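Friendly challenge for the regulars: who can give me the structure tokens for this chain first? No prize, just bragging rights.
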Amino acid sequence: MSLFSGLSRPMKAAGLALVGVAVIAAVIGGITLTSGGGDSDTATPPGTTPTSSDGATQPSSPAPGSPSASTPPASSSAVPPSSAPASSAPPAGQPGQTGQPGQPGGDQQASHKWVTVRVYNNSTIQGLAEQAAKDFRASGWNVSEVKGYPGRLPETVAYYRPGTDEEAAAKALALEFGFRAEPRFKEIENIGPGVIVILTKDYKTNDKDGS
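First reply, four minutes later:
Bragging rights claimed.
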């Protein structure tokens, strides 16, 4: 008995068409199975660089969030702050400058002439102390007292208290006027401050104004 018996002619025609389609599909499937050893569409596993058909490696896209390789690095050549050149000028009032009182190169005598000078006459020459005081003042010395001195001393001397300004002043005065400078002796230790010049007859007057 036929498979399509009892069916109308149109139905028979439709059934034959379906059977033909099925046969064609089976034939195509068989051909596909026999030729499956050709090109494969195997998916590339994650993390593997895909290659082209000729073996060349395809460039991979950078991962999201990673910096681009073409971005130039920031410049690190920071310019250090320039330091101002130190001044080479010497400070004012430095020792050794010419003309400073008491400094090397200055007027040594003038730097001591502010010290008080007391002039005592120990000779029989009337007015010798006044004349010596006049000589000293004419040279710029600070004479504060003029009077006589009792006793007898052998020569004219400028006396000072050691370790005070009187010492340098007495030596400068003695050098200028040609007599000696020595520390004070006992009898004049307690006299007021200042260089004490005790004159004898050996003092040579130096009347600078010609009188």
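The radius of gyration is 64 Å. DSSP finds three helices and five strands in the chain. Your move, everyone else.
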